[in-house]
Amino acid sequence: MTNPAGSGEGEEREGPVIRDRRRIDPETFTVREAEGGGGAAETPAPGAPAGGEAPAAGEEVAALKEQLAERTLDLQRLQAEYANYRKRVERDKGLLREQAVGSVLNELLPILDDIGRARDHEELTGGFKSVGEALEATVGKLGLERYGEKGEPFDPTVHEALMHGYSAEVTETSVSDVLQPGYRIGERVLRPARVAVAEPDPNAEGGDDAPAGE
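== Protein GrpE ==
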């Protein structure tokens, strides 16, 4: 008589039984039906989210995109602020350099006045002439400009009127004489040109100049 349990013991002797409990079939990459029935109910329809994981992943992606947009805006603002900072630094460096150079050159103006007076009196000769011309060339390279010429229109922003008169020879308020030249660096005036000013004579038609000071 055959023992019903004998076949079971024979199967156990053949080797261990390995059951593949992976939910995703490694060959078809589809979701397997659960053992014991009810698999059709557990198997999600094609394209349908499984176990609520897809909506959570979508929310996480949306949050990451929002954070990326915010960080991009922060980076753009930071870049703009840095560009403005560099511009301010360069501008301030230029202003500091101009102020330092202007301070030094301002101390040299009396010496340049002496050189100019010596030239006007034909006393700029010999070694004094060489030194004077070298100094003028050096300050010129630093941006110092001498201005103020007889006959040019009077400009109160760059001229300082020390004398005033009338003349039938002018059609507008003009510099009739330069008493002391002016100096500037670019648009910055170190010292205004000190001048005598002549205005058109309202009472004379081609006559003699009116007395100065009237």
